[in-house]
Design a protein that fits this description.
The protein contains eight helices and nine strands. It is an alpha+beta fold.
C-alpha cells in the first residue's frame, strides 16, 4: 500500500506572477507489490502531461481509490475535510524529473527549482512502448493540486510463434512409449519364424504436398500409432507362445488357436 509522508513546507516564487507562495509537498512511496497503471504510446513521440489524464480516466477506480487513501491519511493536516469531487476540478498532472536531474538540483534555491521544473526537458519514446505510471509526490500551492508522476518506458515487443503445428501431448507421449517398448522388443527377443512378420514401411516416404493440412498430419500420426500397437501385440503374442512352449514343451498349433478363439467367442455370448 502506498505510503503518504507528512508534508514539507517551503516558499516558492510563481514562475509567471513572481508572487511568493506557500508550498506543501507530500512525498509518496510506492511498494513493489503496489498496483501501477499504464498507457500505450504507439508512435515515436515526446511524453507530455496531457497523456496522463486519459490513462487515469481508463483506470478511474484505481485513481479514485488513491485519492481516497490520500485524503484519509493526510486529513489531520487540513483545516477541514475535503472530498474527491472537490479535488478533481483543481488537480493537474506532470511527469516528475528524473533522479539524475533531481539530485543535480537538490541544493538549488526553491524559486530556481520551481522555474527549472517548469522548463525541464521532457522525455521521449522512440517506438511503440508501454509507459508505467506511479505517483511520486503531490504539491499544493497557490490554489492548485499538482500530482508528479514517476514513469518507466518498456518497449512493446510481441513475439508470435509461427511455423509450427500443434501436437496433441497425449498422442506424442503414447507414440514415444510405444517406440521405446518396440525398440526393446527388437533388441532383446528375436521373432520366431512361425510368427508372421509385419512388413515395415516408413510413413515419411509417403509424398506430402506443401499445402498439407493439420488433419492429414493427424491421420499420419494415428497410422503410426496403429503400426506401433500392432508391433507391440506381436511381441506380446510371441511372449505368450514362448511361455507355453517352456511349460508344455510343444508349440501352439493352428488348431489349438482356433479352438481357443471359438471358446472365447462362446464365453462372451
Amino acid at each position: 500500500m502506498p505510503i503518504i509522508h507528512p508534508p514539507q513546507y517551503t516558499k516558492i516564487t510563481h514562475p509567471q506572477t513572481r508572487v511568493i507562495e506557500a508550498c506543501y509537498t507530500f512525498r509518496i512511496t510506492m511498494d513493489e507489490s503496489d498496483e501501477s497503471i499504464s498507457f500505450l504510446v504507439e508512435e515515436p513521440s515526446t511524453l507530455v502531461s496531457s497523456m496522463i489524464a486519459p490513462c487515469l480516466e481508463e483506470n478511474r477506480i484505481w485513481w479514485e481509490g488513491f485519492l481516497h487513501l490520500f485524503l484519509e491519511r493526510s486529513s489531520k493536516f487540513f483545516s477541514k475535510a475535503y472530498t474527491i469531487q472537490q479535488l478533481l476540478p483543481i488537480i493537474t498532472h506532470t511527469f516528475a524529473m528524473s533522479n539524475a536531474m533531481s539530485n543535480a538540483m537538490s541544493n538549488a534555491a526553491s524559486n530556481a527549482m520551481s522555474n527549472a521544473v517548469s522548463n525541464a526537458a521532457p522525455d521521449s519514446v522512440s517506438g511503440p512502448s508501454t509507459v508505467l505510471l506511479s505517483p511520486k509526490s503531490i504539491q499544493i500551492r497557490g490554489g492548485t493540486f499538482c500530482v508528479f508522476w514517476d514513469h518507466e518506458c518498456e518497449p512493446l515487443v510481441i513475439d508470435i510463434p509461427v511455423g509450427t503445428l500443434p501436437v496433441d501431448p497425449e498422442i506424442s507421449e503414447l507414440s514415444e512409449r510405444f517406440e521405446s517398448e518396440c525398440s526393446a522388443v527388437s533388441d532383446l527377443i528375436p521373432m520366431s519364424p512361425s510368427v508372421p512378420v509385419l512388413e515395415e514401411f516408413s510413413l515419411q516416404e509417403i509424398p506430402l504436398s506443401s499445402t498439407e493440412n493439420a488433419a492429414r498430419l493427424h491421420d499420419r500420426q494415428k497410422a503410426k500409432e496403429a503400426r506401433l500397437k500392432a508391433k507391440l501385440a506381436i511381441y506380446r503374442a510371441q511372449t505368450e507362445m514362448n511361455e507355453y512352449y517352456d511349460k508344455y514343451g510343444t508349440d501352439l498349433s493352428d488348431s489349438d488357436a482356433s479352438d481357443s478363439d471359438t471358446e472365447s467367442v462362446s464365453s462372451r455370448k
